[in-house]
What does this fold into?
Amino acid sequence: MSTFPEIRLRRLRRTEGLRKMFGQPLPRAEKFIWPVFVVNGSGEKIPINSMPGQFRYSVDKLIEALAPIVKTGIGGIMLFGVVDENHKSIDANYAYSSKGLIQKAVAAVKKEYPHLTVFTDVCLCAYTTHGHCGLIDSSGIVLNDPTIEILAKIALSHAEAGADAVAPSAMMDGQICEIRNTLDSNDFSDTILMSYSTKYASSMYGPFRNAADSAPGHGDRKSYQLPYNDLNQALRESEFDEFEGADILMVKPALFYLDIIAKLAENTKLPIAAYNVSGEYSMIHASAEKGYGDLYAMAQESIAAISRAGAGIILSYWANQLEELELYRKR
Ligand code: PBG
Ligand code: ZN
It folds into this structure.
C-alpha cells in the first residue's frame, strides 16, 4: 500500500479549476426562495434595521424590486404580510380576506412575473392581536383544532389569489391534512403544500419578529414549536406531515440544525427545504460589520453547509443578493 510521499491529497486542490472540478457545485439561483415582507399602501420601501439589505415593500415597490431578482433565475419568493393594528384581531380574519394584503400581492406578482413560483406563509401570528400562531382561549392557551380551520381558510384564499404553493408555519397538529382537503375540495389540487414540518422554538427568529411585528404578546411558542433537544419529535413531525400529504418538508432554522436536515434526508424521499432564518442572516451581517470576516464569503460558506447537509431548496434572505454571492444563473 502506498502512502506519503506517493499519496498527496493537496494535488486535487492545487488550482481554482481543480477545486471547482472536484468540489460539489454550490446551489444556484433556481434552488433559492426569497422570503420578503409586504405592507399595505404604495411607494413604501422601508428598511428593516435588524436585517440589512431587507425591506418591507408595498406591492408596487415589490414588483419593482423583483425585476433584477427574477433575472438572476431565482426559484421563487415567499410572501409575508405585515399589517397595522387595525387589521389585527383575536381570530386573524384579515388573513383570509379575499381583498387582503397577501391576496393582492400574490395576484400582482403573478400578473407581472407569471413564471416566478410564489409561495405564501400561512399563519395567524402576524394577524392576531395577541401574536400567537393560533386561536387562544380565555386563559391564553393556543387551541389546535379551531386553528387549523382558520389556516385552511387562509391557504385557500392564497390559492384563489394565484399562489403556486402555500406554506403553513403554525405547527398545529393536522394542519397539513386539513389544508390539503380544503384545497382539493375547492379545485386547487395542483396547489403545492410546503410544510414547515420541523420547526423549532428557536431564539433565532428575533429580527423576523421585529420585521413582521409578530412577537407573541404573552408567553412563548414552546407549546407548539419543537424543543431543540428532542430528535425523535423532530423527525416524527416531518414524517407525520409526509403522511398527511405535504409535498415538501422543511427544517427551520437551518444552520443550527444541519444534523436534523441530514437525518431527515435519510428518512424521506420528499424534497427538503431549509429555512435560513433571520437570526442566521443578521448574525453574519453583525459579524461582518464588526470586521470579523468578509460578509459574502461567510454567507456563501453558510449556504454551502445547508446544501451539503441535504437541503435541496433554501429559503434565505441572501436570495436577493445572489449576484454578490455568485450563485446567480449565468447565461
Ligand atoms: C411565523 C414565522 C416565523 C418565521 C417564519 N414564520 C417566526 C416565528 O415562528 O415566530 C421566522 C422566520 C425568520 O426568522 O426568518 N409563524
Ligand atoms: Zn406564526
